[in-house]
Amino acid sequence: MLKHIFTSLLFILFLTSCSKPEPQLFNDSFFTFGTNITISIYTDDEKLAQTGFKTIRDEFRTLNNQLHPWNPSELHSLNAAISKSQPHQLSPLLHLMITEGQRFHKLSSGLFDPAVGSLVKLWKFDQAANIHTSIPKDSDIKQILSKRPSISEITIDQNMAVSSNDLVRLDFGGFAKGYATDKAIEMLQNLGINNAIVNAGGDLSAIGSKNNFPWKIGIRNPFYNGAIAAISTNERTNIFTSGNYERYFEKDGTRFHHIIDPNTGYPSVEIASATVIHDSGILADAAATALMVAGLNNWKQTAKSMDITKIMLISSDKRIYITPQMDKLVTILDTGLTKVVEDIHQ
User: Fold this and answer.
1) DSSP tag of 220
2) Same fold across 85-163 and 212-345
3) Which one of 3.20.20.140, 3.10.520.10, 3.40.640.10, 3.40.50.720 gives the CATH number of domain 212-345?
4) Which residues pair with 27 in a beta bridge?
5) What distance in Å separates the CA atoms of residue 63 and residue 37, rounded to the nearest whole number?
6) How many other CB atoms are there within 10 angstroms of residue 315's CB atom?
7) Where are the domains of the chain?
8) What is the pLDDT along the chain (346 residues), one digit of tens a residue?
9) Domain 85-163 in CATH: superfamily?
10) What are the distances in angstroms from CA 100 to CA 103, 110, 160, 180?
11) How far are the Cα atoms of 80, 230, 237, 290, 305 from residue 271, in angstroms, in the given order?
12) H helix and E strand count, the chain
């Protein structure tokens, strides 16, 4: 009898030790690219999740160290060479970022231009702390615009980059997070992780689901604390938002933010935030920036040129402009705003 009980206990202990852990949500966060990065992984393997976290942390910090426009980095060295009209040898990453930047510049008819670093610096948005409240002199802005620095003025020959315009200053902030989150999702999938979100300060890429339920994602309200809309997804999704609320200062009741119109030298107006969903994170990131600059008159043409259809714009006068494709995916939470559904092909 005792032997039977002992054997049964051993069998129960064996089954318990062999039972598979229940899947759960693991989270990690860190600071880089000037923002908080949050990673959520849904899995039954905590060790795998921790490996995923370390992989992404290391990759993001490496990218930030390579692409930082103001601190010592590969990009900073390239900008220094351009300022002296000297050629500079490119790493594969810089080569990719320049060619992609030139592609998005062309698709957006110049509205997306990562070469406006001279203007970003003039407005002091290169500084980590936004404590300034001074508007640059119009004459200083016009002096930079007189040479119209553009990423199209960079020539690459056998991995050597050179520009004839010494005011070109590359700042990849308009699409670096898109590249990084694309890369992060690819790395997680290579590890066998198929349910995750990589959130870079509200710009995110997602795969899979959480416990067979869609990921629920909030879109920030540009006017008040909280979310203005929500999106549910259980597939590979990239959701990117550009807005006037991240880096800005206010002067005499006017908000001046970090997204600079390359044509005027001043921060973009009319649109408070632009959200884009696309299969490519890097394209969604660049397109959201381009739409901020395009304004209410040109956003549909820009969307067509960049081949994006899932768009939500929040105008400065508190209207929501949304495409039919995006309207199917979004739940508007702030019912105090007027919603206008517009087809980019009409």
Assistant:
1) E
2) no
3) 3.10.520.10
4) 40
5) 13
6) 20
7) 23-69+172-207, 85-163, 212-345
8) 545 555 555 555 554 455 678 999 999 999 998 899 999 999 999 999 999 999 999 999 999 999 999 999 999 999 999 999 999 999 999 999 999 999 999 999 999 999 999 999 999 988 765 556 789 999 999 999 999 999 999 999 989 999 999 999 999 999 999 999 999 999 999 999 999 999 999 899 999 999 989 999 999 999 988 999 999 988 899 999 999 998 888 888 889 999 999 999 999 999 999 999 999 999 999 999 999 999 999 999 999 999 999 999 999 999 999 999 999 999 999 888 999 999 998 8
9) ApbE-like superfamily (1.10.3980.10)
10) 5, 13, 16, 14
11) 33, 19, 24, 11, 19
12) 9, 17
Amino acid occupying residue 32: T
CATH class name, domain 23-69+172-207: alpha beta
* Structural tokens at position 166: 């010494």
